[in-house]
Amino acid sequence: MPLVNKSKCVSCKKCVKKCPVDAIEMVKGKAVIEEDKCINCGKCIKICPVKAILKDREVVRFLISSNMNDVKDSLSDSKNKKAKKRVIRSRMRQLKREQQVLRGMMKELKRLKL
């Protein structure tokens, strides 16, 4: 599923006009893709003049980088080594919970009968 890098988006609205299923809207001057509507056709990716819309394989790298920047910000706010370790352990617990949820969802989705 494509993802918009909001820091790169220049609000040109070309992607909004090009989307065949109206899955892109402008929110606070930035493009937002509605995952429920998107058919993953890639037209928005091709039309974006500043490459603000990321392809599937780029999304994972972008999200990891973004999350690591958040963690680094939290670490810089921590005053000592012990507090920094707590931040890291807390983030690891949170990620393990998210991982369990994702695994459970994937298992349930496989069981769905259509």
TrEMBL record:
Domain 4Fe-4S ferredoxin-type, chain residue ranges per copy: 1-28, 29-58
Pfam families: Fer4_10
Keywords in alphabetical order: 4Fe-4S, Iron, Iron-sulfur, Metal-binding
Ranges of biased composition (kind: Basic residues): 81-90
Gene3D superfamilies: 3.30.70.20
Record-linked InterPro entries: 4Fe4S_Fe-S-bd, 4Fe4S_Fe_S_CS, PSI_iron-sulfur_center
GO MF annotation, one: oxidoreductase activity
PANTHER family registered for this protein in UniProt: PHOTOSYSTEM I IRON-SULFUR CENTER, PHOTOSYSTEM I IRON-SULFUR CENTER-RELATED
Protein's UniProt name: 4Fe-4S dicluster domain-containing protein
The species this protein was found in: Methanolobus profundi
